[in-house]
From TrEMBL:
Keyword Transmembrane: yes
Pfam families in alphabetical order: YccF
Superkingdom field: Bacteria
Chain ranges passing through the membrane: 30-50, 62-80, 86-106
Domain Inner membrane component: 4-54, 68-118
Keywords of this entry: Membrane, Transmembrane, Transmembrane helix
N-terminal signal peptide: none
Annotated source species: Streptomyces desertarenae
Name of this protein: YccF domain-containing protein
Lineage: Bacteria, Bacillati, Actinomycetota, Actinomycetes, Kitasatosporales
Length: 140
């Protein structure tokens, strides 16, 4: 079911979203100073291509620089991207068939609002203990 939803998402929203985020990432890389935001754009582009079965979690130890970078992102891009995802989510949720896609847009809001200091992981690895669990095979 996850694969079917991802394929439908790719046709209805994902390809266009991913292209938009990738172009924004390229622009950020051209401006050199904004490379951290470019990396975040490419990460979001991958998430926009295939969102079902993946989740966004906070990266431990991201630091103050991520917080400051997120404030800059919020002012220049985050607010507008979030409003776009909210509008698309509401539009998709107006139809019964579009509800999963609307929920996928809502799921993208946190990473589009503040992308630095976040990680995109498989949904089954996004449990609350994900960040604090020791590596497999590591002594406890």
């Amino acid at each position: 079911m996850r694969t079917l939803l991802n394929l439908l998402w790719l046709v209805l929203s994902g390809l266009w979203l991913a292209l938009g985020y990738a172009v924004a990432g390229l622009v950020c890389f051209l401006l050199v100073v904004t490379i951290p935001w470019g990396v975040a754009c490419f990460r979001i582009a991958g998430y926009a291509l295939w969102p079902f079965g993946r989740s966004v979690v906070e990266r431990p130890g991201a630091g103050v620089a991520s917080g400051v970078g997120n404030v800059v992102w919020l002012v220049f891009a985050g607010l507008w991207l979030t409003l776009g995802h909210l509008a698309a989510g509401v539009g998709f949720c107006l139809t019964v068939i579009g509800i999963p896609f609307g929920l996928a847009h809502f799921k993208m809001v946190p990473v589009s609002l503040m992308p630095l200091g976040r990680e995109i992981v498989r949904s089954d690895a996004a449990s609350p203990s994900y960040r604090w669990a020791p590596a497999p095979g590591a002594p406890r």
